[in-house]
Amino acid sequence: MADLDEQLSLRPIGLEVADRMEAAIVREVFAPGEKLRELDICARFGISRSPLREAFQVLEGRGLVERRPRLGTRVTEMSVENLDEITTCRIPLEATCSRLLASRDDHRAVATELEVPLVSMRHAYKRGDFVAGFEANVQMTALMHARCGNSVLQRLLDQLDKSALRYRFRAYRSATSVLDDMIEGNTAMVDAIRSGDGDRAAQVTADLVEKAWQTTRTLFLEST
Predict the structure, then answer these.
(1) What is the CA angle 169-62-202, rounded to 5?
(2) Pick the CATH number of 2-75 from 2.60.120.260, 1.10.10.10, 3.90.1150.10, 1.10.645.10
(3) Which residue, 33, 91, 97, 189, has fewest beta-carbon neighbours within 10 Å?
(4) What pLDDT, in 10s, does the model give residues 38-47?
Protein backbone atom coordinates (compact mmCIF):
# COMPACT_ATOMS: atom_id res chain seq x y z
CA MET A 1 0.00 0.00 0.00
CA ALA A 2 2.86 2.38 0.80
CA ASP A 3 4.37 1.79 -2.65
CA LEU A 4 0.99 2.48 -4.26
CA ASP A 5 0.56 5.70 -2.28
CA GLU A 6 4.04 6.79 -3.34
CA GLN A 7 3.25 6.10 -6.98
CA LEU A 8 -0.01 8.03 -6.79
CA SER A 9 1.79 11.01 -5.29
CA LEU A 10 4.25 11.26 -8.17
CA ARG A 11 3.77 14.21 -10.49
CA PRO A 12 3.13 13.51 -14.19
CA ILE A 13 6.36 13.19 -16.18
CA GLY A 14 5.21 15.88 -18.59
CA LEU A 15 4.84 18.39 -15.76
CA GLU A 16 8.22 17.50 -14.30
CA VAL A 17 9.84 17.99 -17.71
CA ALA A 18 7.98 21.28 -18.17
CA ASP A 19 9.39 22.57 -14.88
CA ARG A 20 12.93 21.52 -15.81
CA MET A 21 12.61 23.07 -19.25
CA GLU A 22 11.18 26.24 -17.73
CA ALA A 23 14.28 26.58 -15.55
CA ALA A 24 16.47 26.13 -18.64
CA ILE A 25 14.46 28.66 -20.65
CA VAL A 26 14.55 31.21 -17.82
CA ARG A 27 18.35 30.88 -17.67
CA GLU A 28 18.50 31.06 -21.48
CA VAL A 29 20.04 27.61 -21.82
CA PHE A 30 17.35 27.44 -24.49
CA ALA A 31 17.67 30.86 -26.10
CA PRO A 32 14.76 33.10 -27.12
CA GLY A 33 13.57 32.05 -30.58
CA GLU A 34 15.45 28.73 -30.47
CA LYS A 35 13.74 25.80 -32.16
CA LEU A 36 13.17 22.92 -29.75
CA ARG A 37 13.83 19.69 -31.63
CA GLU A 38 11.84 16.83 -30.15
CA LEU A 39 14.46 14.12 -30.65
CA ASP A 40 17.18 16.23 -29.02
CA ILE A 41 14.98 17.17 -26.06
CA CYS A 42 13.84 13.56 -25.58
CA ALA A 43 17.45 12.41 -25.50
CA ARG A 44 18.40 15.21 -23.11
CA PHE A 45 15.73 14.30 -20.56
CA GLY A 46 15.52 10.57 -21.27
CA ILE A 47 11.82 10.60 -22.14
CA SER A 48 9.52 9.66 -25.01
CA ARG A 49 7.70 12.11 -27.26
CA SER A 50 4.36 11.77 -25.46
CA PRO A 51 5.40 13.43 -22.14
CA LEU A 52 7.51 15.93 -24.09
CA ARG A 53 4.46 17.09 -26.01
CA GLU A 54 2.59 17.37 -22.72
CA ALA A 55 5.47 19.52 -21.44
CA PHE A 56 5.30 21.72 -24.54
CA GLN A 57 1.59 22.24 -23.92
CA VAL A 58 2.28 23.32 -20.33
CA LEU A 59 5.08 25.64 -21.40
CA GLU A 60 2.88 27.18 -24.08
CA GLY A 61 0.33 27.96 -21.38
CA ARG A 62 3.08 29.66 -19.39
CA GLY A 63 3.97 31.83 -22.36
CA LEU A 64 7.45 30.34 -22.71
CA VAL A 65 7.12 28.47 -26.01
CA GLU A 66 4.99 28.75 -29.12
CA ARG A 67 3.90 25.84 -31.29
CA ARG A 68 3.05 26.20 -34.96
CA PRO A 69 1.75 23.54 -37.35
CA ARG A 70 4.52 22.17 -39.58
CA LEU A 71 7.01 24.63 -38.06
CA GLY A 72 7.51 22.93 -34.70
CA THR A 73 8.04 24.46 -31.27
CA ARG A 74 10.22 27.45 -30.47
CA VAL A 75 11.11 29.36 -27.34
CA THR A 76 9.06 32.55 -27.24
CA GLU A 77 11.01 35.66 -28.17
CA MET A 78 11.71 38.31 -25.54
CA SER A 79 10.85 41.93 -26.22
CA VAL A 80 10.51 45.17 -24.31
CA GLU A 81 6.89 45.35 -25.47
CA ASN A 82 6.18 41.98 -23.87
CA LEU A 83 7.93 43.04 -20.67
CA ASP A 84 5.83 46.22 -20.56
CA GLU A 85 2.58 44.30 -21.04
CA ILE A 86 3.45 41.77 -18.33
CA THR A 87 4.46 44.39 -15.79
CA THR A 88 1.51 46.68 -16.46
CA CYS A 89 -0.67 43.78 -15.31
CA ARG A 90 1.60 42.73 -12.44
CA ILE A 91 1.76 46.08 -10.64
CA PRO A 92 -1.89 46.35 -9.49
CA LEU A 93 -2.22 42.61 -8.89
CA GLU A 94 0.96 42.33 -6.79
CA ALA A 95 -0.16 45.40 -4.83
CA THR A 96 -3.53 43.75 -4.17
CA CYS A 97 -1.75 40.60 -3.03
CA SER A 98 0.28 42.53 -0.45
CA ARG A 99 -2.83 44.38 0.74
CA LEU A 100 -4.58 41.05 1.31
CA LEU A 101 -1.58 39.66 3.19
CA ALA A 102 -1.50 42.67 5.50
CA SER A 103 -5.25 42.30 6.10
CA ARG A 104 -5.04 38.70 7.26
CA ASP A 105 -5.63 37.97 10.94
CA ASP A 106 -2.28 36.18 10.99
CA HIS A 107 -0.38 38.90 9.09
CA ARG A 108 2.49 38.80 11.59
CA ALA A 109 2.94 35.06 11.03
CA VAL A 110 2.87 35.60 7.26
CA ALA A 111 5.56 38.27 7.59
CA THR A 112 7.68 35.84 9.61
CA GLU A 113 7.32 33.26 6.82
CA LEU A 114 8.38 35.82 4.23
CA GLU A 115 11.47 36.65 6.27
CA VAL A 116 12.93 33.21 5.50
CA PRO A 117 13.53 33.76 1.75
CA LEU A 118 14.35 37.41 2.47
CA VAL A 119 17.19 36.29 4.75
CA SER A 120 18.36 33.96 1.98
CA MET A 121 18.43 36.93 -0.39
CA ARG A 122 20.61 38.87 2.06
CA HIS A 123 23.02 35.95 2.44
CA ALA A 124 23.20 35.56 -1.35
CA TYR A 125 24.00 39.26 -1.73
CA LYS A 126 26.87 39.00 0.75
CA ARG A 127 28.28 36.02 -1.19
CA GLY A 128 27.80 37.75 -4.54
CA ASP A 129 25.62 34.84 -5.66
CA PHE A 130 23.00 36.39 -7.94
CA VAL A 131 21.49 33.01 -8.90
CA ALA A 132 20.76 32.12 -5.26
CA GLY A 133 19.40 35.63 -4.72
CA PHE A 134 17.12 35.29 -7.73
CA GLU A 135 15.87 31.88 -6.60
CA ALA A 136 15.16 33.17 -3.09
CA ASN A 137 13.23 36.11 -4.55
CA VAL A 138 11.19 33.74 -6.73
CA GLN A 139 10.47 31.61 -3.65
CA MET A 140 9.33 34.70 -1.75
CA THR A 141 7.03 35.80 -4.55
CA ALA A 142 5.46 32.34 -4.82
CA LEU A 143 4.91 32.26 -1.05
CA MET A 144 3.14 35.62 -1.16
CA HIS A 145 0.83 34.41 -3.90
CA ALA A 146 0.08 31.19 -2.04
CA ARG A 147 -0.81 33.05 1.16
CA CYS A 148 -2.98 35.80 -0.36
CA GLY A 149 -6.19 33.83 0.26
CA ASN A 150 -7.63 34.49 -3.20
CA SER A 151 -7.30 31.54 -5.57
CA VAL A 152 -8.15 33.55 -8.70
CA LEU A 153 -5.57 36.21 -7.87
CA GLN A 154 -2.99 33.53 -7.11
CA ARG A 155 -3.58 31.86 -10.47
CA LEU A 156 -3.30 35.15 -12.38
CA LEU A 157 -0.15 36.20 -10.55
CA ASP A 158 1.52 32.81 -10.95
CA GLN A 159 0.85 32.93 -14.70
CA LEU A 160 2.25 36.44 -15.02
CA ASP A 161 5.25 35.52 -12.91
CA LYS A 162 6.09 32.60 -15.21
CA SER A 163 6.14 35.00 -18.14
CA ALA A 164 8.28 37.53 -16.25
CA LEU A 165 10.95 35.16 -14.93
CA ARG A 166 13.27 35.38 -17.95
CA TYR A 167 13.35 39.16 -17.76
CA ARG A 168 13.94 39.09 -14.02
CA PHE A 169 16.76 36.57 -14.33
CA ARG A 170 18.49 38.57 -17.05
CA ALA A 171 18.30 41.69 -14.85
CA TYR A 172 19.80 39.84 -11.87
CA ARG A 173 22.55 38.51 -14.11
CA SER A 174 23.30 41.93 -15.60
CA ALA A 175 23.63 44.10 -12.48
CA THR A 176 24.42 43.33 -8.83
CA SER A 177 22.41 46.41 -7.82
CA VAL A 178 19.17 44.59 -8.73
CA LEU A 179 19.45 42.17 -5.81
CA ASP A 180 20.28 45.02 -3.44
CA ASP A 181 17.21 46.95 -4.61
CA MET A 182 15.01 43.87 -4.21
CA ILE A 183 16.24 43.32 -0.66
CA GLU A 184 15.53 46.93 0.30
CA GLY A 185 12.08 46.97 -1.29
CA ASN A 186 11.01 43.57 0.01
CA THR A 187 12.18 44.46 3.51
CA ALA A 188 9.89 47.52 3.49
CA MET A 189 7.05 45.40 2.11
CA VAL A 190 7.41 42.72 4.80
CA ASP A 191 7.52 45.41 7.50
CA ALA A 192 4.24 46.86 6.18
CA ILE A 193 2.63 43.41 6.14
CA ARG A 194 3.83 42.74 9.68
CA SER A 195 2.30 46.01 10.88
CA GLY A 196 -1.02 45.16 9.22
CA ASP A 197 -0.97 48.33 7.11
CA GLY A 198 -2.64 47.23 3.88
CA ASP A 199 -2.41 50.60 2.14
CA ARG A 200 1.30 50.94 2.83
CA ALA A 201 1.97 47.32 1.87
CA ALA A 202 0.18 47.85 -1.45
CA GLN A 203 2.00 51.11 -2.19
CA VAL A 204 5.43 49.76 -1.28
CA THR A 205 4.81 46.72 -3.48
CA ALA A 206 3.61 48.81 -6.42
CA ASP A 207 6.68 51.05 -6.10
CA LEU A 208 8.96 48.00 -5.87
CA VAL A 209 7.57 46.34 -9.00
CA GLU A 210 7.61 49.69 -10.84
CA LYS A 211 11.28 50.28 -9.95
CA ALA A 212 12.22 46.72 -10.90
CA TRP A 213 10.38 47.18 -14.20
CA GLN A 214 12.30 50.33 -15.11
CA THR A 215 15.63 48.78 -14.14
CA THR A 216 14.89 45.55 -16.01
CA ARG A 217 13.68 47.51 -19.02
CA THR A 218 16.87 49.56 -19.18
CA LEU A 219 19.11 46.52 -18.76
CA PHE A 220 17.13 44.58 -21.37
CA LEU A 221 17.47 47.35 -23.94
CA GLU A 222 21.20 47.58 -23.23
CA SER A 223 21.64 43.83 -23.76
CA THR A 224 19.82 43.67 -27.11
Answers:
(1) 65
(2) 1.10.10.10
(3) 33
(4) 999 999 999 9
